[in-house]
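User: I've been trying to design a sequence by hand for this structure and keep getting stuck. Would you show me what you'd pick, starting by listing the structure so we're on the same page?

Assistant: Good idea, let's start from the same input. This is the structure you sent:
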């Protein structure tokens, strides 16, 4: 009696896992006996893409911040403030190097400027 119950619970668990997998999509095929068999679609997930996405979002946010700042205060004032940073401590000099106007920021300013002004 116990073996029958264990077997039944194992089948229920297997069906539950299969049903969970099929929530992401499934395909149906006709097997040799003429039965329709639903099989879950394999999800292809690239392992390790989480850190890449986070790094990409941080980079886009950083360049977006630079573009909005440059578009709002103008290139002359922006360069004056960078010059003040270049004359400061080592941390301020490193910040000035990171915040310097680069081609990516210039390209983003072209699309951001009409929105800011």
């Amino acid at each position: 009696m116990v073996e029958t119950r264990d077997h039944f619970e194992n089948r229920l668990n297997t069906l539950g896992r299969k049903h969970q997998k099929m929530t992401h999509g499934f395909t149906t095929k006709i097997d040799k006996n003429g039965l329709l068999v639903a099989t879950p679609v394999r999800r292809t997930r690239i392992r390790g893409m989480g850190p890449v996405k986070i790094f990409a979002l941080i980079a886009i946010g950083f360049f977006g911040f630079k573009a909005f700042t440059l578009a709002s205060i103008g290139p002359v004032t922006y360069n004056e403030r960078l010059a003040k940073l270049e004359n400061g401590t080592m941390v301020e000099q490193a910040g000035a190097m990171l915040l310097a106007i680069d081609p990516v920021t210039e390209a983003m300013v072209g699309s951001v400027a009409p929105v800011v002004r």
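That's my pick for every position. To get oriented when you compare it with your attempt: The radius of gyration is 29 Å. The longest helix spans residues 49-73.
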